[in-house]
Amino acid sequence: MRRRSPPPTGLSRFLAQVDRRLRLGRALRVLSWAALLPAVTLLALMLFWRPGAAALAAGAAAAAVVLAALLAAGRRDLSRAASAADRQARLHDLLKTSLEVGEKVPDSPWRPLLERRAELAVQSTSAAGVVSIRPPRLPLAMAALLVGAALLVALLPDAPQDALASAQLSDARALPGGLLDASESDELAATKRAEGADEQVVAEELEGTPVEPNTTVRGESSMEASEPSSREERDSRESRARHGSTAARAKSELSASETAATLREEHRSQGADERDGSGPERAGDERSDMDQRDGDGESTDRAKEGEEGAAGGSPSRREIAEQVVAFDLPSPAESQRKRGNSAESALQVAAGGRRESDLGEARDDADGAGAASAGLGTAPQESDQTPLGEASEIAVTLEEVLLAARDDADATERRTRPSRQAEARRDVPPRGNASAFDAGSSELERPALHVPYPLGAHALVREFFTPEPEETSSRRSTGEISG
Amino acid sequence: MIAEPERGVAALRDAVARVRAEVGRVIVGNEDILDGLLTCLLVDGHALLEGIPGLGKTRLVQTLASALHLDFSRIQFTPDLMPADIVGTDVVQEDAAGHRSLTFRPGPLFSHVVLADEINRATPKTQSALLEAMQEKTVSVGRTTYPLEDPFLVLATQNPLEMEGTFPLPEAQLDRFLLKLRVRYPSAEELHEILRRTTEGTEAKVTSVLDRQGILELRRLVRSLPVAHAVRDYAVRLVLATHPDRPGAPSSVLRYVRYGASPRGAQGMLLAAKVRALCDDRPNVSAEDLREVAKPALRHRVLLGFEGEAEGVDTDSILDDVIAAVPLP
Fold first, then answer.
1. Residue pLDDT, tens place only, B209-228
2. Distance between CA B50 and CA B85 in Å, rounded?
3. Cα distances (Å, whole numbers) of residue B182 to B31, B55, B274, B316, B322
4. Contact A460, A434 (CB under 8 A)
5. I want to staple A373 with a disulfide (CB 3.0 to 4.6 A). Which of A340, A378, A450, B110 is the partner?
6. Mind telling me how many Å the CA of B154 is from chain A's nearest CA?
7. Is A21 helix (H, G, I), strand (E, B) or coil?
């Protein structure tokens, strides 16, 4: 029998050292990967706290860099770590086996070979060389990058927020009364400037509010020029700007109503002038204008509008139409009715106690084709109570009203026309169990169109089979459900 | 050889190298499959080769048998094959004196290396006739049990595609195989070499380089190799991690697996790891060896549940999850 000899102390000491370093290395690996979690949390908190475009961009850039680093270095790092782990595990297993065989099966024929191999392994390397306790660099680098991104987000200036707020403000200014978009506002401002109006007047036209001196209209206002000192201040400024735009809108509507009243007054006074004696000339001018209208159509109208606007500064027909639209947006049926009624009422006004023949002429005027006849002599006789100027005024007013009514109808139709999506949705047949109840009951079909299938079906079934609370209570009270 | 493990390890490595070289004269590629077959030969196990037709499964087994100085028989499994056709039967024999007696006529199973070609084409009855032979290395005919001579190695092939007219192997049968090896399609270079060898000139002849006695000695050497407790514990944890009712099982196991690997799987894994360590000139089994042999040793022992079957989950992917989930010793 072979004498049982203790295992070499150097080997066991080495194994203990390897064990210790292995445990330490594993703990460091876990810790380094765990460091990613607070870094990601910190970045997410920063992005939540400063949800600006630049902050989001910084976060996205950090995420992209992290991803790129993972893709680039991850595979190499992982394969290197895997091979190192295999090497360490192999050495560890050799030492363990050698020690175990030495302790438990000392007579094993494998013991000399195992001990010799283990000693060779110990001699050829050291525990520090084989078992690395250096934590992996990749997760630490990623964590540092994420923390850096979070700090960047925290230290970013507030410019993006101000730019956003100023964009909102300029948009709000560019839409006085909700009627004009930005391009139209610019167009209006250019027209006013071409008319020679100063910037303050232009700004008033655009916003409906007087502008403080030393401030520009579309550029940086005094409110935006100063840096907001805090988030609350920024919010309050935005709120004030919103209130300002609402006030401007109200003011704009008020000025529009005033303009419309002025226009009506102007028309009335023009008619009075014509009645006073300047009628025939005026009627001749109007007749030629109307001839032009008949021949050239809408483009001529627009050219005329421009001329009128540039010459007198009085509100153009388009502005009137816009104001009419702003005041009253009737439904399509109402618009249709209004269109007919307005023509009829215009005719009634034009008749004004006249004869039937005059009424027919006025109707011709309303149709546009007979507008010229009013000035060519087919019309009113000397004995007629209605002067020629009044007839032309009636014709002009009638056409104004018709045009305004047409614009009303178009605007209303545009506003009330369903979108393509809505039309497509309307074409989709009801889903789920709604088809079982589609005998004309739109109350049942409607939820099935917008609720996903199972939920919609569930809701329908529940609605169908759940007794009404009043019914249940009444039954209980009457004793129908006794047990 | 046991007395001198160092020489035994060298002899094993030399024998394996010679067999590899000899088989390599005919077979191109498939080194891992050949290593698996040699592992089964050295640890007294059986191998199931799975692959589409034409990949050289039968050819590989025939060539290996030629490189070993052993008896070889081939059984082509068909639906009408009967158990008596493979285990043998008693026949009436008349001697010179006119006396008639029943004499056992051994079937093709009485060989050292048995190639069970397309094993899943035989009926379960015939397949079951192999169970006793594979596990106990005996054949019972009537009231007589006949021992099979060592080494007894069943190398079966099956085609995973043509499932019509086949009888999938029952779990008990599958569990008898030490390794399930998947024969892969050759690469372009390997295909070039195959074409060159098989379409030009004459085929190489294989000579026997390892005899029966040498195989048995190597088997004893492999079994004597010590394994550290930590490594054995790793094997146990790997096998237990394939069980869905065990705590710590990966999510894929919990979701897709109905039954995990059997203790026979742990035995096969440890034995195969021993062969791998010795072929790598190491007198100790490492956890790395167990990881390498885990898939061929366990993939046919993990039984998928309904969800796994329905979704066509591969057991290899589940075993990958298991290997990743079980920490090293």
1. 888 888 999 999 999 998 98
2. 24
3. 12, 11, 21, 11, 19
4. yes
5. A378
6. 31
7. helix
